[in-house]
Each structure stands twice: as C-alpha cells, then as structure tokens.
Hints:
- Strands 1, 2, 3, 4, 5, 6, 7, 8, 9 and 10 form a 10-stranded mixed β-sheet that branches.
- The chain has 15 helices and 10 strands.
- It is α/β, with parallel strands linked by helices.
- Helices cover about 50% and strands about 20% of the residues.
Amino acid sequence: MSLNKLLTTASVGAVVLGMSSAAYSDNWRYAHEEYEGDVQDVFAIAFKDYIEENSDHSVQVYRFGELGESDDIMEQTQNGILQFVNQSPGFTGSLIPEAQIFFIPYLLPTDEETVLEFFDESKAINEMFPELYAEQGLELLKMYPEGEMVVTADEPITSPEDFENKKIRVMTNPLLSETYNAFGATPTPLPWGEVYGGLQTGILDGQENPIFWIESGGLYEVSPHLTFTGHGWFTTAMMANQDFYEGLSDEDQQLVQDAADAAYDHTIEHIQGLAEDSLEKIKEASDEVTVTRLDEEQIQAFRERAPQVEEKYLEMTGEKGEELLNQFKEDLEAVTEE
Ligand code: 6CS
C-alpha cells in the first residue's frame, strides 16, 4: 500500500470514528454482525485477546448495530475504515456469488463432527475461497460454522405444502431466495435489523437461523414453532482489508494468522453443545414453543428440490462456481468416507 493511500485510509477512518490518525497502526478496528456473547463475538474477543497478549497492538471490537448493518461494515472494511470484519456468506452473495454455495440445501451433512472436520480440512474452504475474497480486496482469515439452520414459523412446517403462502425472511443473497422458492415458500430478503419487528407485526411468517441466535435474538417469542429441516448450516467468514494486511510486517501478519487460528479453535469448542443448551433455555422461557424434527421421509420431500437450487447456483456462478462446487463435494466425500 502506498504511503499516500495509507494516510488517506487512516485519516478517513480517524474522522469517521473520531480517533487520532496516530492510533491507526496500533489500534485495529474489527466489526461483526452479532451481540455480546454470541458466536461471532466469542471469535472476535478471542482474536482481540490473542493480539493484545502477544503484541503491543490493541483491537477495538464493534458489535451489531454499532456501525450499521452487515453490508455497512463490509463497505467500511473494503474502504479501509475497519481493518477486520466478520461477514456471513448470507450477506456476501452479491459481492462474491460463489459464497452462496452454503445455501444449496442438503449439501452439508447434519453431523456436527463431520462438518467441523470438513471446515478444518477442505481445500475449497481453505484454499479456493481465499482467492475469491482476494479479488474483492479482502484477506480471508477463517470460515467457520455457527450452527445448524432451523426454521421458525407461525406454525410447524412438515412439508413444502406447509410453506405455501408463507413469507419467510432470508438473508440478502439471491440463492437463498431460490432455496425457499424451491421449498414452496415466499422468500423475503431483509437485513437482520428488520427481522424481529417483521415477525412481530406479521409482515413475516417465519425465518431461518441457528438455535443459539433464535434464543439470543428472542426470535422464539415472535416465531415460536421450530422445525429442524436438516438443510444447512449457518456459516460465517472473518477477514481483513487486504491492503492493510499486506502492509503489515511479516511478524504482524504471522500474529494475525496465529490470532485467527486461536480464535477459531476457541470458537469451535464454544459451539459444541451450544444448540442443545440454547434449546433448553428457549423451552424454559416459553410455553408456546414447539419443536419438530422432520423424519427421513419428510426430509426427502425437501431434499428432492435441492437439484434445482444447485442448477441456479451454477447459472449464477459459471465455471468458477462449478470448480468450487466440485472441490466442495470432493472434500465432503473425503470426510464422510473416513
Ligand atoms: O439472520 C441474520 O441476519 C443473522 N444471523 C446470525 C446467526 N448471525 C448474524 C446475522 O446477521
């Protein structure tokens, strides 16, 4: 990064965040999409702790809403105002269409151990995705799963017919809309900030998210019928502004990589058992909640609609998307065969 660009980036950040530009190199800014104690926050705090314990740098963590919605914090990172960001592929789809691969239903298995092994070992995740993010000026540091997706709605969902005329909120990526179209619902893409109110006022009939988030965001209060459809995992990604990262010394780049590794290990430990604990809390807090776990036959009715979503993914992403999908499937086979 040129000195000029560095100074410009530093001063824009300093003005926006009311800091002196002298602090730029020492105090790194990191925003994520969740609340205190949620999975992305656990990752961010572990990253911060590692950096601060092993260097003179400090990390300022910004949680959901402090600097805007997910798209805002991504824009601020691409502009160099923030040094680090955690944005989920659910929102990155318009920037990096291939990131929508996580929304092809029934691609990932439900078994947690297999999924964790996949994220650790997958060439698609650890080698191909960093190249795709780099094209957008982003240094991808980690991709990690947060939990299995669960549908919540105003009544239990056991078949695609139950989804008919239901407005289901989805994160703002086109492929996720295709998934819910294929499932028979009416997908409604919205940023996170509009979801609770939308469910409360009946503008929305349901949504999907991992259990910990359904508990921490209080979604069960306004959307009390939970259905385990087994169709996917909420995955997220943590990255740095690439100009910033490339401008770091070798020692600081290593520090950042080590901090991301330490945060990843800590977060993976944190998510194990989290869904079960959160579900208990939900059941304790509400008498209205129902929990439906689809059986194999019911799942089959949804699973057979997955190929049409895969087709759309390939239409949206072309050759690069196909290459990624083939590698993704190969990596999945490697961990399920063992
Ligand atoms: O549904 C959403 O938009 C949010 N869900 C999670 C689990 N994390 C952040 C995201 O914004």
